[in-house]
């Protein structure tokens, strides 16, 4: 059995993970859901290529986001029906873009069935058995909830008193740290405060934080301003999206913000790696973003169309958090050779990347397998030190691509738009265990 080391010490979560990893072990007893799943999580081995058999199936659409609250997995996206994997003739259940299941049994929670009238793009675990839901919607059930809501996992009801009042667009990405919720997207206002695409909110009330007013500006021509992804540590916030400046400072599509002081400030960390243009159909091409468990580096994945080895189109790239300067270069880059990557998870043992890629290690590919390319259909893992593809190769039906990863002490959850994962039927949701 592999040893798991979580950077956040939550004893009940670690014990649950060990029970999950032991073959034939019964699921752990129900525990409190007051504490969100520990993040970040460090694995000392790569997950299995064989997914667990009990995750439920999403029968249509796409999964965009996954969160864990206690022992409950919350799944969001754009879909209308789900069913349990066991028994095989389990009935289809109506679910409007959001549902939840038990991490250890796969049983769908009957009491969590909020009707989200619009697409869910982001989820984040909250305190006291709650989950934050971000996306492009105006109501949840009959309750107003424009762009962002906080729901109780026990019954799917909105938490009283949380009223962020997002306006002018939706929420694409969420991160929670230190009693604050960071939201990114294409919105323009939170309550009465102007916040263009990026805001920090009080986790209990949703009120905008006046000490965080970083201005995101300068969208690249051809698309509107938008923050695509956020990743957070106790002192650093990484931001990527369609912008060229943060607080008036040049930051082409990517920047770091110091959130450890009394007032947030843009760090002297700048790269030109994402300044060049990729294909005209992708004016902005950064997508997924994730810190390492220790927060000392982070990895960015992109779309963009084939741009050749000199550009970071259709690639994964590692950057060092502590670097300083105007022309910071990536530690390594791994190119797909012409296929998009949308999601990334970093566990210490591996950098997992997902999209609709056919290859990794393919800098000379042009929608083809160039010299040295390795086949990694739809999902793959990269060595965090060398930047080269690891042997792990479960495969996934490509489709649009993986839109959601979530590493936890017992393995790796995956959300996408297709039905084959690890050479088995797993409709749009699956989990690779440690073992």
Low-confidence stretches: 1-38
Biggest sheet, open or closed, and with what strands and sense? 4 strands, antiparallel
Overall number of strands: 39
Arithmetic mean of pLDDT: 92
Strand content: 35-45%
Number of helices: 1
Supply the helix-strand structural class: mainly beta
Radius of gyration: 20 Å
Distance between the termini: 6 Å
Shape: globular
* Helix content, binned percent: under 10%
Keywords: Signal
Signal peptide: 1-21
Organism: Thermocatellispora tengchongensis
InterPro entries: Delta_60_rpt (IPR013431), Quinoprotein_ADH-like_sf (IPR011047)
Explain this structure.
Residues 1-21 form the signal peptide. It holds the Pfam family DUF5122. The protein is mostly beta strands and 435 residues long. It has a domain at 1-23 and 37-121 and 405-435. Helices cover 3% and strands 40% of the residues. It has one helix and 39 strands. It has one helix at residues 11-21; strands at 4-6, 41-43, 57-58, 62-69, 72-78, 81-83, 93-94, 98-102, 116-126, 130-140, 143-144, 148-152, 166-167, 171-177, 180-185, 189-190, 193-194, 198-202, 216-217, 226-232, 236-242, 245-246, 249-250, 254-258, 265-266, 286-291, 297-302, 315-320, 332-335, 341-346, 351-355, 359-360, 374-375, 379-382, 404-408, 411-415, 420-421, 424-425, 429-433. The strands form 13 sheets. Strands 9, 10, 11 and 12 form a four-stranded antiparallel sheet that branches. Strands 20-21-24-25 form a four-stranded antiparallel sheet, with no helix packed on it. A four-stranded antiparallel sheet has the order 26-27-28-29, with no helix packed on it. It is globular and about 50 Å long.
